[in-house]
Design goal:
The chain is of the alpha/beta class. The relative contact order is 0.18. The chain has a seven-stranded mixed beta sheet with strand order 1-3-4-2-5-6-7, sandwiched between helices. It binds guanosine-5'-triphosphate and magnesium ion. Guanosine-5'-triphosphate binds next to helix 1. Magnesium ion binds next to helix 1.
Length: 199
Amino acid sequence: MKINEANLVQMAVSPSQYPCGSLKEIALAGRSNVGKSSFINALCNRKKLAYTSSKPGKTQTINFYDINKSFRLVDLPGYGYAKVSKSLRKDWAAMIDGYLSNRSNILEIILLVDARISPTSLDQEMYQWIVDNGFSGIVIATKADKLTRNQLNRQLKKIHKSLDCPEDQDILPFSTEDKGLVQETNEMLEDLLAFYNVL
Ligand SMILES: Nc1nc2c(ncn2[C@@H]2O[C@H](COP(=O)(O)OP(=O)(O)OP(=O)(O)O)[C@@H](O)[C@H]2O)c(=O)[nH]1
Ligand SMILES: [Mg+2]
């Protein structure tokens, strides 16, 4: 799919601020710093569409990006960042939960995990919640460029096991630094959107 147009249409902290209309949404969930915002930039081939940072806790609102006027990518604040105060973490968790639990536009929730790091209990909880709520449970392992091919394959297996994914499901490697992987991810999303008759 060629992404010609990608616009940040809304930054929300509460449901009243979510964009109107019935455009379908693919939400990106994952720990702080895993690369959710970078994922959006790489897919849209834009350097500064979504703000990224080497420090965890950059995205603090729910950010809605309209893509080709046909669907939305939704960037969520990351979870599990210990340096954020307990009360702020609670606010973010409520914000994420409020969106994921009540937003009827959501087509899929993609879980991003860092390819180098074994999933945490929060990742396991999030994955379980995603599949329990009827979504496919697509898992993307980011920062694949930081591993050798052998290391990556080992990690993908580990992540699969740790999340207790079904036998026939693959953990999909991703890297902002690898055009081939970005293209494969684009094609996966295109197939998904076609399956749901969105494209
Ligand atoms: N080498 C490499 N670095 C990456 C990749 N993806 C993200 N990064 C880096 O990881 C850091 C965090 O990326 P973000 O996209 O801000 O992460 P995030 O998940 O949006 O983080 P929060 O907004 O805090 O939840 C940045 O320094 C990125 O440049 C990747 O595929 N490869
Ligand atoms: Mg972010």
